[in-house]
């Protein structure tokens, strides 16, 4: 017990929680945006991979870190556009299309990486984002080290939460996105385009997802590894249900998840001798399933989620 | 302006033609990544062809590769027909494999002739259990099975690593994370001398035919189709939807488990954590390419296996990354989706009519 | 009527697959006029208006709309945006509201630039309040639409159109979901608005309200305009003939004395999410040889009652018995086995599995029957033969019994369901909106079958929003309002109408015409 308490009050624990939560924040926001408009995007896992690979590759080729972020977002938008075309105007199964996009984005990324770097034994490294050291604020006790050990991308993630919240709550665009996810006819009858709103949301949401991937190669680590995304995308899909499609709750869910994951890593080193390490490795996935089971019944699903809409059809 | 109109009836030619065309288009599209990799495209396709049809051995290797894909393809096809999104065949495959090595490595004292049936039974039961849980969570709590099966894949893979470093580890294995080998009498017999093709293929083919028959002719198949096509009407008509979904989940999981049984007890002999290069996920492509028809699964599994085996061999010969195969598989899924759209809908261009104002 | 033309439809045609929904329809609308577009279900009224509003792109024809200066301009077709900009507003029969948003958000949706960072909430609120004042239509602006009643939702729909400065208002079956009194109030509001320059087209198939509230009538049949006249010149019988194309015989129904009870509900409660699926202290008996009509505005608990009898919904309190047996844990299968035949409200969604064959749909309720299966295998030939026989007997027309059921027309789907239900000789029949959306021919076939079943000895529960249907078929009438059932001891439309609105002092008013 004492050990857990000690962990919970340590700065490094909370700093690690934030670090783990950051890609999930991007991913959950992206999934939220897609689903609010009525489109489930199971391309998320592959889009994470594509964002991680494309962002890293751009930096490695000399684009600069923020250039890499842009390239990653562009890659996400590209794969999002494929999903959007398949599911919105063509109205195909969102489940299968999403899985197809995940497979496609993953294999394109892996193939491109292998083709660009055929004979490397250890993955080449880039100079990643560094912690933002803001004078005075960084010197605050506890809060300073926790918050100001984070890189610019974590701050970007926080900014995106605010942005998505503001758009959804306070702008006409956000109202229209929520309307199209609830009843596409309401949008069509008011002279707006169902297709444009849904496709725009999916493309923008996918760009956000890709930033989650980019964080992995450009901030959390400094290189691209096969299998590094490791189900983070799927966890975001579970978290967005847990968050009931609300940006604030999504942030909370990602942070809770990050804290739990950071805790299990630390507990593992504490009691590793007694319990196999894998028990701890499984925990995040099991936790996500439990969160899903708890939240599923009461979840306030966008009413038109998974339902395609065709213009001029009766 | 473009107008999308549903076709009154989808013709036989379209139902057959679309998957074939999709497969061809996906293969042709492979030329783009090949060009990026700087390979000679014609000889790359040539190498792929040789890698599958160049020799009896090559061909038997392809069929060996197709065997688990038929099982996972059937698992996906049956579940998807009931609109039960089992994306967890990868995990269920490993559950089946774990059960197979558990009973197959001589832990229990079992007479020789009984061993193979027991391995098959335990393997499919383990796979079934792996899908029954998410199906239960879906019917009982409304938890989306897509997410739970996807996440369970990771849980099961980590559990497997734990087992391979623990109870299932081969004591003679010099500390490698691998299981002890399955006893000689527990191995599925091979079909051709000096080749790896094993009788798992026969079981897979029988499973496909039985699944086809059950789907079309049995009351169970009727219920499955009704629930998948319109769960609300099925429930109204007195069909027990949840019970049907659970039964489909069990069959689907068992088939995925059989893929794992075939791989350990037919091919490898022992279990490692890299037994499956994503057979579970590829099974989804196989099923979709087959239009969710069980017999079609056999044909599309052979196509996908050819892509893998051909690309592997081409990759060795020409130094192009073997991830090309995954790329072709992903593209065939996207192509067949789009193709399916054109089979169901007709797209006509219409000019907005503007007659002169009087 | 000498005022100027504000809208002119010319030669509008539309096909859906092989069905011709509209064939070269011309229609003019004058300033300040109320035009009733009359026709049977499936006559093409809604399709015509959906083309006007840009939901559908016509195959041929054009639309001209008067601008603010009064000159007629061609309207770009296929774009609701263009119709809205030209001053056309439409209130759809199936409301187009986003339920997760507030009333004001629904009204403002699409009226503001999407890419602006700020919203003009205050100005919009002032404008809407002015419109509410002027039109007499009120709504609470910050309420979530999901919490509104049907009548309130319809007001929001009209406010939506008026907020966009509609000069031409199209109302698609506006009274289908209202009590007779609410409908009268709506038309009074509309009449007041036409005085300020609004022109109105309303779609209806109810002769009574068309004659009472329109200036002019246009009649559609099978997609073609078959007549047009000033309401003052209209003759009820003539219009009815024009709509249907033939005389219809009134339904014949000999009086019968009720037999033993076949369904009994005692103090049944169903706790639902909304009024739609809630019942409170419902007690009722249905007897053999009896058609019990349940009148009421939709969304007042009919779904719960139908669900209960179908076996889809569990009673949370009270007792449900079918025949002599008490239903404890209901499932549709138990109800089927107890001899309950169910005709569902939404025949496409709950009645058939569209992707399965007609033959399969005809036996879907009896999969345990040895005539249909043996040892877990379907008897394909027997199933097909059964379907051939039933298709003949019940006149189900389609592309063959082994073709997918979704290829059938709405009327034929309903006949398929009738065949499935009546073939089992049920003791109790639930008919939930059995004629909605059917043309007169199919509707009278349904009525004939229900009466036949009653004569044979079945008890029938007829749930309908169409009071005329209930008055013509039911032996006894109950009114459902907010989950409670009230016995109507009268057949007076006005009294029943008041009861549908929840007012329970009918005796003082029961002075109208007798049954």
Write the layout of secondary structure elements.
The complex is a heterotrimer of chains A (314), B (358) and C (515).
Chain A (H helix, E strand, L loop, with lengths): L1 H7 L2 H26 L7 H17 L4 H23 L6 H23 L26 H6 L3 H19 L1 H11 L1 H6 L4 H27 L11 H11 L4 H25 L5 H20 L18
Chain B lengths: L1 E5 L5 H18 L1 H6 L4 H13 L2 H26 L7 H16 L7 H30 L3 H20 L35 H18 L1 H11 L1 H6 L4 H28 L10 H11 L4 H25 L4 H22 E5 L9
Antiparallel strand pairs in B: 1-2
Helix pairs in contact in B: 1-14, 3-4, 3-13, 4-8, 4-11, 4-12, 4-13, 5-6, 5-7, 5-11, 5-12, 6-7, 6-11, 8-9, 8-13, 9-11, 12-13, 12-14, 13-14
Chain C lengths: L4 E12 L2 E12 L3 E6 L5 H9 L6 E7 L5 E3 L5 H6 L2 E4 L11 H6 L12 H15 L14 H14 L4 E5 L7 H16 L3 E6 L2 H7 L2 E6 L2 E7 L5 H9 L16 E10 L8 E9 L2 E6 L6 H9 L6 E6 L2 E3 L4 H6 L2 E4 L3 H5 L6 H6 L9 E2 L2 E2 L1 H14 L16 H13 L5 E5 L7 H17 L2 E6 L2 H7 L2 E6 L2 E5 L4 H8 L15
Parallel strand pairs in C: 3-8, 3-9, 6-7, 7-8, 13-20, 13-21, 16-19, 19-20
Antiparallel strand pairs in C: 1-2, 1-4, 4-5, 9-10, 11-12, 11-14, 14-15, 17-18, 21-22
Helix pairs in contact in C: 14-15
Structure description:
The complex is a heterotrimer of chains A (314), B (358) and C (515). Chain A has 314 residues and is mostly helical. Chain A contains 13 helices and no strands. Chain B has a single domain (38-320), classed as ABC transporter involved in vitamin B12 uptake, BtuC (Orthogonal Bundle). Helix content of chain B is 70%, strand content 3%. In chain B, strands 1-2 form a two-stranded antiparallel sheet. The two termini of chain B are 25 Å apart. The relative contact order of chain B is 0.21. The model of chain B is unreliable at 353-358 (pLDDT under 50). With 515 residues, chain C is of the alpha/beta class. In chain C, strands 6-7-8-3-9-10 form a six-stranded mixed β-sheet, sandwiched between helices. Chain C has a six-stranded mixed β-sheet with strand order 16-19-20-13-21-22, with helices on both faces. Chain C has a four-stranded antiparallel β-sheet with strand order 2-1-4-5, with helices on one face. Chain C starts with a strand and ends in a 15-residue tail after the last helix. Chains A and B meet through α5, α11 and α13 of A and β1, α7, α12 and α14 of B.
């Amino acid at each position: 017990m004492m050990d857990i308490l000690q962990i919970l009050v340590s700065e490094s624990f909370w700093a690690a929680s934030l670090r783990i939560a950051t890609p999930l924040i991007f991913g959950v926001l992206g999934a939220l945006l897609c689903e609010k408009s009525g489109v489930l995007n199971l391309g998320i896992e592959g889009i994470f991979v594509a964002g991680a690979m494309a962002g890293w590759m751009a930096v490695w080729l000399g684009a600069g870190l923020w250039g890499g972020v842009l390239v990653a977002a562009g890659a996400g938008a590209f794969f999002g556009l494929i999903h959007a075309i398949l599911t919105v105007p063509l109205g195909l199964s969102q489940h299968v299309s999403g899985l197809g996009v995940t497979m496609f984005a993953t294999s394109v990324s892996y193939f491109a990486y292998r083709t660009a770097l055929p004979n490397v034994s250890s993955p080449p490294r880039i100079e990643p984002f560094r912690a933002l050291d803001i004078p005075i604020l960084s010197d605050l006790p506890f809060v300073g080290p926790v918050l100001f050990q984070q890189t610019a991308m974590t701050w970007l993630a926080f900014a995106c939460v605010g942005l998505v919240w503001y758009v959804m709550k306070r702008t006409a665009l956000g109202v229209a996105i929520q309307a199209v996810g609830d009843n596409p006819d309401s949008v069509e009858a008011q002279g707006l385009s169902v297709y444009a709103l849904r496709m725009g949301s999916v493309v923008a949401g996918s760009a956000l997802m890709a930033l989650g991937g980019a964080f992995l190669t450009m901030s959390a680590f400094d290189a691209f590894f096969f299998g590094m995304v490791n189900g983070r995308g799927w966890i975001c899909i579970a978290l967005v249900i847990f968050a009931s499609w609300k940006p604030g709750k999504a942030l909370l869910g990602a942070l809770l998840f990050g804290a739990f994951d950071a805790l299990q890593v630390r507990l593992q080193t504490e009691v590793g001798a007694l319990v196999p390490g894998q028990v701890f490795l499984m925990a995040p996935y099991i936790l996500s399933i439990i969160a899903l089971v708890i939240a599923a019944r009461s979840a306030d699903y966008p009413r038109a989620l998974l339902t395609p809409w065709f213009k001029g059809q009766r | 302006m473009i107008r999308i109109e549903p076709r009154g009836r989808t013709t036989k030619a379209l139902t057959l033609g679309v998957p074939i065309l999709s497969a061809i288009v996906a293969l042709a599209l492979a030329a783009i990544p090949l060009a990026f990799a700087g390979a000679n495209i014609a000889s790359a396709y040539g190498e792929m062809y040789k890698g599958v049809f160049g020799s009896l051995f090559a061909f038997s290797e392809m069929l060996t590769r197709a065997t688990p894909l038929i099982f996972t393809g059937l698992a996906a096809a049956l579940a998807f027909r009931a609109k039960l999104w089992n994306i967890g065949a990868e995990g269920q495959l490993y559950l089946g494999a774990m059960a197979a090595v558990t009973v197959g490595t001589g832990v229990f004292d079992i007479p020789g002739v009984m061993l193979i049936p027991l391995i098959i039974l335990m393997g499919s039961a383990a796979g079934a259990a792996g899908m029954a849980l998410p199906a239960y969570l879906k019917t009982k709590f409304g938890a989306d099975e897509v997410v739970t099966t996807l996440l369970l894949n990771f849980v099961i893979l980590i559990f497997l690593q734990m087992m391979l470093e623990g109870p299932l580890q081969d004591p003679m294995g010099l500390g490698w994370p691998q299981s002890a080998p399955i006893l000689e009498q527990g191995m599925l017999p091979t079909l051709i001398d000096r080749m790896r093709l094993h009788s798992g293929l026969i079981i897979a083919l029988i499973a496909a035919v039985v699944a086809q028959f059950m789907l079309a002719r049995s009351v169970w198949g009727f219920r499955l189709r009704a629930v998948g096509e319109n769960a609300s009407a099925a429930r109204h008509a007195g069909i027990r939807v949840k019970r049907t979904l659970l039964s489909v989940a069990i069959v689907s999981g068992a088939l995925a488990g059989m893929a794992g049984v075939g791989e350990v007890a037919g091919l490898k002999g022992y279990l490692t954590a890299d037994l499956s290069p994503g057979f579970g996920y590829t099974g989804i492509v196989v099923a979709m390419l087959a239009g969710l028809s069980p017999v079609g699964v056999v044909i599309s599994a052979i196509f996908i296996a050819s892509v893998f085996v051909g690309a592997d061999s081409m990759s060795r010969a020409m130094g192009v990354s073997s991830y090309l195969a995954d790329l072709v598989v992903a593209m065939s899924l996207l192509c067949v989706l789009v193709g399916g759209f054109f089979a169901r809908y007709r797209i006509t261009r219409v000019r907005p009519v503007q007659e002169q104002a009087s | 009527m000498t005022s100027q033309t504000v809208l002119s439809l010319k030669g509008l045609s539309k096909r859906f697959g092989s069905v011709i929904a509209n064939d070269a329809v011309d229609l003019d609308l004058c300033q300040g006029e109320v035009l009733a577009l009359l026709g049977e279900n499936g006559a093409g009224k809604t399709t015509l208006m959906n083309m006007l509003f840009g939901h559908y792109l016509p195959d041929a024809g054009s639309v001209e709309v008067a601008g603010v200066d009064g000159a007629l301009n061609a309207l770009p077709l296929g774009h609701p945006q263009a119709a809205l900009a030209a001053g056309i507003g439409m209130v759809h029969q199936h409301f187009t509201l986003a339920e997760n948003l507030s009333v004001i958000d629904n009204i403002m949706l699409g009226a503001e630039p999407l890419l602006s960072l700020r919203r003009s909430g205050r100005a919009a609120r002032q404008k809407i309040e002015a419109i509410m004042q002027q039109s007499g239509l009120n709504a609470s602006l910050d309420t979530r639409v999901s919490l509104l009643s049907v009548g309130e939702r319809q007001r929001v729909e009209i406010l939506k159109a008026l907020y966009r400065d509609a000069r031409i208002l199209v109302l698609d079956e506006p009274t289908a979901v209202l009590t007779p009194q609410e409908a009268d109030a709506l038309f009074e509001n509309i009449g007041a608005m036409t005085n300020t320059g609004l022109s109105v087209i309303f779609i209806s198939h109810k002769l009574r309200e068309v004659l009472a509230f329109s200036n002019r009538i246009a009649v559609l049949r099978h997609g073609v305009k078959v007549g047009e006249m000033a309401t003052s010149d209209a003759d009820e019988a003539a219009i009815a003939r024009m709509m249907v194309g033939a005389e219809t015989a009134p339904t014949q129904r000999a009086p019968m004395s009720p037999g033993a009870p076949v369904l009994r509900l005692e103090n049944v409660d169903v706790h639902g999410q909304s009024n739609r699926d809630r019942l409170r202290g419902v007690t009722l008996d249905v007897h053999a040889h009896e058609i019990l009509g349940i009148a009421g505005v939709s969304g007042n608990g009919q779904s719960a009652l139908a669900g209960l009898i179908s076996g889809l919904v569990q009673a949370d309190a009270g007792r449900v018995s079918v025949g002599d047996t008490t239903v404890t844990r209901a499932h549709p299968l138990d109800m089927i086995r107890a001899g309950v035949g169910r005709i569902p409200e939404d025949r496409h969604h709950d009645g058939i599995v569209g992707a399965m064959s007609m033959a399969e749909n005809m036996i879907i309720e009896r999969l345990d029957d040895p005539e249909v299966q043996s040892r877990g295998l379907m008897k394909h030939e027997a199933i097909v033969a059964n379907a051939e026989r039933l298709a003949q007997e019940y006149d189900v027309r389609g592309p063959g019994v082994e073709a997918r059921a979704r290829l059938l027309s709405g009327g034929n789907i309903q006949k398929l369901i009738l065949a499935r239900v009546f073939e089992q000789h049920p003791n109790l029949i639930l008919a939930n909106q059995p004629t909605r959306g059917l043309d007169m021919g199919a509707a009278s076939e349904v009525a004939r079958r229900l009466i036949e079943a009653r004569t044979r000895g079945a008890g029938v529960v007829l749930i309908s929003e169409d009071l005329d249907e209930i008055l013509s078929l039911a032996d006894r009438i109950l009114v459902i309002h907010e989950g409670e059932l009230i016995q109507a001891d009268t057949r007076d439309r006005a009294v029943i109408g008041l009861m549908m609105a929840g007012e329970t002092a009918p005796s003082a008013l029961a002075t109208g015409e007798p049954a």
